[in-house]
# Entry
Amino acid sequence: MPESISIVIPVYNEVESLPRLYEAIKDVMEGLDNPYEIVLVDDGSRDGSLKYLEELAERDSHIVVVSFRRNFGQTAAMAAGFEYSKGDVIITMDADLQNDPTDIPMMIEMIKGKDIVSGWRKNRKDPFLSRKLPSLIANWIISKVTGVSLHDYGCTLKAYRREVVENIKLYGEMHRFIPAIASWVGAEIVEVPTKHHPRRFGTSKYGISRTVRVVLDLITVRFLQSFSTRPIHAFGPPGLLMGFVGFMISLYLSYEKIIHGVQIGNRPLLLLGVLLMILGVQAIVMGLLGEMLARIYHESQDKPIFVVKKVFRQDIGEVLTNITEADKKLRDK
Ligand code: UDP
Ligand code: MG
# Structure
């Protein structure tokens, strides 16, 4: 039985593109043996996209429409798409026809034995200064910071195994970091060049300002990766260092004052010493608060601090960990 495919598409004011998009995907999918569904998430469109999608869903049983009450953003739309899809493999793409549905069979082929196939818009058809250049720089930074080297984090055309996205929660602009987050927990990723077209209908929803948000999200992701289970290790060392230096400075000034009777009230060093001590204490307290939050975060959600791939036990054989199912199987025995 070939794997079932869910194609997840965020839609925000794309009414002119939708008919062509639907036809193109249908043509491709009808040519394959895989069972499929197309999950379209309407992100609060105001141009009649939703009406068109609902009509489509009436006609075609492959269509699933999820509609938001208002515009929540592309990342939220994708998260909803994951939530409401059922396929073994999830393929995400844009609704504006910039990604090409004819790449889908290749993505399905490539994901065999892998966890993520990430599209690379090698011949990207977007304005250079406002989009391609910032994205070039952003991709370089993201690759360096996350340690997962991809040419094109921003390409929506990607294929994921369901297990991979199931355990990742998305916030902000974070859908682009799924490959990085997944690879930290051991997912195997391949990158493939995909086709890209200029936008023919509607307008782009983004400008250069997104780059800033992406960089901030990158800091968050990176911090969570390294320190989410041990924030005191992030804040503690600089805190101790600052506190120590500040203390030594103050000690020296006290010595000058008490033993030699020197005036210290007008010395810049005094300011520095006091500042460093305060900052040091603050950093350590911040780390301790972080530790408390980390406990609340992990314990309230029963979130493990590790990721299991498989469990072996003689009586039940090998259990692949889709965690909930594995849990059930282990308990039932
Ligand atoms: N999109 C969305 N919600 C938003 C903004 C965008 O669902 O708030 C969708 C949009 O309809 C498209 C995809 O996300 O399918 C990518 O958006 P766009 O083409 O504007 O981005 P670009 O290709 O210019 O980076
Ligand atoms: Mg686009």
